Amino acid sequence: MEEKEDEDILRYFKLRIQHVVVPKDGVKDPTNTNEICGICLGKFKHEETIGTLGCEHEYHACCIKKWLLRKKNCPICRTSVSPFPSTKTVQMHSN
Ligand SMILES: [Zn+2]
Ligand SMILES: [Zn+2]
């Protein structure tokens, strides 16, 4: 099933929601424009879902998802991407 494969891809990056803070005076800070998706080269927009790889490079979740289906490395630094360990480890198993 394709859905199962898609779920597996989600383990290769962490998800977060982008929050863009727009200054009240509308002055754009040119030094604050480094949050760009290295795959589609589009800027991260407010409340977009961002996927962070283990090398800490960030992409749109939809972009990195498509990329990882083909290649298991970072588009920018070429670091091979491995899935994050499962968070379902049982720590309070006292039985
Ligand atoms: Zn993108
Ligand atoms: Zn990277």
UniProtKB/TrEMBL annotation:
It comes from the Eukaryota. One of its GO terms (molecular function) is ubiquitin protein ligase activity. The keyword Protease does not apply. It catalyses: S-ubiquitinyl-[E2 ubiquitin-conjugating enzyme]-L-cysteine + [acceptor protein]-L-lysine = [E2 ubiquitin-conjugating enzyme]-L-cysteine + N(6)-ubiquitinyl-[acceptor protein]-L-lysine. Its EC number is 2.3.2.27. SUPFAM superfamilies: RING/U-box. GO terms for cellular component: nucleus. Residues 37-78 form the RING-type domain. Keywords: Metal-binding, Transferase, Ubl conjugation pathway, Zinc, Zinc-finger. Gene3D superfamilies: Zinc/RING finger domain, C3HC4 (zinc finger). This is RING-type E3 ubiquitin transferase. It comes from Solanum verrucosum.
